[in-house]
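User: Thanks for the earlier help. One more: TetR family transcriptional regulator. Can you show the sequence and predicted structure together?

Assistant: Of course, both are below.
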Amino acid sequence: MAPHKSLRQMLIDAALEVISEVGAERATNRMIAQRAHTALGSITYHFDSKDDLLCEAFTEYTRRSVETINQHFAAVDSLESARSALVSMVELTISDTIVGSELYALALRRPRYRAILQAWSRKCCDIMRTCFTADTVFMVDSLYQGVALHRNIFAQDFPTTRIRTAVERLTPEHSYIGPGSNAQHNPM
């Protein structure tokens, strides 16, 4: 039996769904309350403002994202499995890509959202740095962000083969420092 979600969590989940459909700026408290199947007053009971709710929603989104990336990297034991983890990380669902892009857009002008984005990016890069050099992580993170934006802006699908090719080009053998590598035992 699944654990019962609190109303607060239901509102956060509903906010993420609404953001994915109409964007953060167009999301209204009414839309979010309707999606959560609750009274509009529930939002003001649990959150001081729409902005507080959106910040909580984006924080939850980034927490889930980091958890997923952690799961992909947990089984890494070679360069090939690390590359596969990166490919999985880059292959986002359209919904996740939209929510992430909304966070990027808000982070450009609003420090509160910038802090959420920076913490998210730092955590993701920390995970990748367990397997790859800092320079490689920078390049792969740029690929990740670029693919996310291109998927939204150009409504373009990126086949797994194209993503895998990009990851392979960005992760030469010498850049791998994770489990089973020579660098793991002989750090530079």
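User: Great, one quick takeaway?

Assistant: The CA atoms of residues 135 and 182 lie 18 Å apart.
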